[in-house]
Amino acid sequence: MDDPEIRKIQDLLQRMIDRYLEAQVLHGRISRMPSQQVITLSALGEQGMQTMSCLADGLRLAPSTLTGIIDRLIERGFVERRPDPEDRRVVRVQLSRAGKRLFREITAYRRKFTEQVIKHLNPAQLGQLLEHLEAIAQGMERELQAIDNGRNNK
What we know:
mainly alpha, 3-stranded antiparallel sheet
């Protein structure tokens, strides 16, 4: 692939990501939340209660950065800290009732937005899109894993 193709793909992906995030930000209560809080809330909604260290690893954030994000989500009433019943040194975080409601709202909005974006595709185009997005997602995962492995080997 030559450089103009790579640049065009990079520009399209970035524009799509930016517009997707912009659409979320324009939506109701999400508009008052920084994107890192939305991402963290979504991760807790998708994966459930977990330790701070597991959540930080999954989000690829420094634990100190995640602590600040979690503190703000707790202040807003969306997240709760819980001691681990097995190990008092471990703290787990989970969505509160308000956090679960907001997560359902975010998920419903994302689904509706995606449906509106792809509604003009025919079944064949939709199948091709899905196939290509899966290949891109797998490539991203491989690349991120290689980056993580490189960091861990230093």
